[in-house]
Amino acid sequence: MKLTPVILPVKMRSQSSALQIRLRSVRYINFAKWFRGKRERLWWVAGGGAALTLTLLSCSNFESGRTILAPPSIPGAEFVGSESCDTCHEKITRDFRTATHARLKAPGDNAKNMGCESCHGPGSLHVKSGGAARTIINPNKSPATCFQCHTEVRAAFELPHHHPVLEGKVSCSDCHNVHKGDAIKGGGTNTLQKVKGGGMGILSQNETCYQCHAAQRGPFVFEHEALREGCVSCHSPHGSVNQRLLTQRNATLCLKCHFQQQTVDGRLYIGDSDHSTRLVQGTCWSAGCHEAVHGSQVNGHFRY
């Protein structure tokens, strides 16, 4: 039996369309009311889900997704393994197991015992020649080997203000232990470490900086407490867009610590002193107020 479509009159069709529009409007209004009531919770759920996803991806990349970099190459040389280095560099190879760099890994049979050659390149020519010059890579003479892994540090040295590593006046090993212990001199437990200029000493992290910046060592009668937290609380050691390798610009750096709740409108109090007119005169150390930022022998407000 063939069904004949029913054609509604024009008036009934218009009423049906109006009813559908009204139903859609009601549904939208109900959804909007529901969403407004749940909006904060939904944002928390969405944000938490995104954070969890990023965390899981990051954790998985520590092992399975980590980029494995190729070691330096030397024309005509082959990898011989760290045991060959032990013949002449016994003390270095013995202590290297304690070094931060010893944690680097390159899975597979082809990478067994190639710890030294990860930074110095294949050593067959160096071994055959009995240690001749220019048969092995010496990172102390060029930081390019370090930059193969530490790409973010390479970028920092391109900033306007940086330690003169690229200029060859400072070496990475002046501040970092490559072959023994913590990679940062003075980091972790204090042990005997090589001091720039010769000799050994027990260094704290600050004293690593004091090897060159002796004037900031003190002791001071009035010491800036920031020194106890470390030079890096104010300075970025590799490079910065700010002068003197500062992490923040001008008074913004000082206000990271020297800030308090303000109770008087239009005034900026630091301690018991109103600084409203002083900050516009320059930085805290260049406006004639606190020139001796590391410490002073004569004044508790860090003046010379």
Biggest sheet statistics:
2 strands, antiparallel
Spatial ordering of strands, largest sheet? 1-5
Structural class: mainly alpha
Q: What form results from the Cα inertia axes?
A: flat
Count of beta strands? 8
Order of helices and strands: HHHHHHHEEEHEHEHEEE
Secondary structure tally, helices: 10
Helix content: 25-40%
| Mean pLDDT over the full residue set | 78
Uncertain stretches of 5 or more adjacent residues: 59-65
Domain tally: 3
Span from first to last CA? Answer: 109 Å
Strand content: 5-15%
Q: Can you give a write-up of this model?
A:
- With 304 residues, the protein is mostly helical.
- Helix content is 32%, strand content 6%.
- The chain has ten helices and eight strands.
- A two-stranded antiparallel sheet has the order 1-5. A two-stranded antiparallel ribbon has the order 2-3. It has a two-stranded antiparallel ribbon with strand order 4-8.
- Strand 6 (269-270) and strand 7 form a beta hairpin.
- It starts with 9 loop residues before the first helix and ends in an 8-residue tail after the last strand.
